Amino acid sequence: MNFLENIFAHLQQSAGRPVLQEMHPERVVAATGGELLSQIQTARAFLRQAGFQRGGRCALLAPNSIYWAAIDLAILAEGGIVVPLYSRQAPDELVAMMKDADPVMICCGDVSLRTNILRSWPDAPDCHLPREIFSTTAPQEALAEPPLPLAGTDPVAIIYTSGTSGEPKGVVLTAGNLNHMLGCTTARLDLLTGRRSSPEQVFHYAPFCFAASWILLLSCLSRWSLLSLSTDLSNIASEMRRAAPDYILNVPVMLERMRAKIEEQLHARGGPVRWIFRAAEREWRLRAGGGRSRSGGFWLGLARAAIFPAIRKKLGPNLKALICGSAPLPPETQQFFLMLGLPVLQVYGLTETTAICTMDTPGKIKPGWVGAAIEGTEMKLGEMSEILVRGPNVFPGYWNRPPRTNEAADDALRGGWFHTGDQGEVSPDGYWRITGRIKNLIVLASGHNVAPEPIEEKLLHAVPGAQQAVLVGNGESFLAALLTGEVEEMPARNALEALHAQLPHYKRVHAFRVIREPFTVDNGLLTVNGKLKRDAIAKRYQHEIEEIYRKQTA
Question: What are phi and psi of 111, to 5 degrees?
Fold first, then answer.
């Protein structure tokens, strides 16, 4: 039974209970397994009436919803290839990716989105809205119709990478990739949630067009779960409390915000509660480094009994873990939540590896590390400590980009190994740590190679008010930084001086420039999943960077 057949069978078994629900301010909209199956078959009937055929590509361009899941599964059930895209991305960027994918039809979330697409692409294929798709009448006998058979090598999705430099590329994922990955994720989630007398509760806010989010959706529909979907990013805290999840898939920036909010509330409360919390936190950090104080154990025990449970209850009374991926998570943040009794399980992977290469095992977390390789996946270090991956989770290639046999050094897949472009290290017990991106390496005039990410992380924690940090200095004699946020000159300089004591001479940041405008998706300086577009930032602020080095060398 392949992954899709398994999902259909599970939905039939869950015909009478909710499997998906949307969190709206005034109400919760839920769908049982039977209702979702009915919507899937209605969407399949629409696809057939529209002339959709096996192997056809359909762009899915809409916010997360029950309809999104139904259309997605309908495309797969008809033997099609889904092309999920981020609905909040600029229309011109979306059109460029759709032209590359060459879909036979587009499913748009609303009229406004369809209007913007057609304005940028007058010759676009038919764009259909949910109300058009789900007003179709499916034949009664079709409601129990199984999905069309899928071979392991059949492509099922083209997911576009976010494009931190250059144009996004369409990553082709196959049924075999999904078969293997969903087996791994469901087994690991079983370890987390254990035997249950009721469905596990899951809360999710990241768009399904990202590979990890899609894998979560398919995993939840494959198991005894109720997946609650956020519909308002500005109201996540309230939605999360209402959903009362067992676990949540997060990105690091969200965990950083949660941590900042907790600390802000403790500071505002003041008094003994704040004092006890700070004393407990000092002891926790001391123990994380292998030390221990005389009285710290008392305060840590008191916080565990009287303060930490209240914080956990406010986040969610049933929370067992926070799952985190997409970018490196600062070890301090992982330790913070671990102190509260909420383990953060890290996941590492790329779209090209069906979202996952490594996963933390519940109860075996090492802060700062991202777990061991998942079952069936091989990992090793190549030149410049680049992480190489081989296994059934690795994609077969990029869409519309045949292998460049005369440029083998540029190909992602070489000799059966996928070259991730990530630098890392592996511990004797097989745990992995991500240390940077090879293409981000800064080569100083002295010949020293510097991975910017670890230093940028230190800057964000050291410099008061800093929200984002980008290290520069390729070909120069020293490192400098661009900082966004409410950064003041003297506190920042003092923080850098203190930081220098922890760094070798060539990794010290000798100058900085404050950029008042934050880097965002809308201004083209962040990818849609929050990663820095370093080339775009360097180009936008070329004058400011040049001025830094002119002043320092004058």
Answer: -65, -40
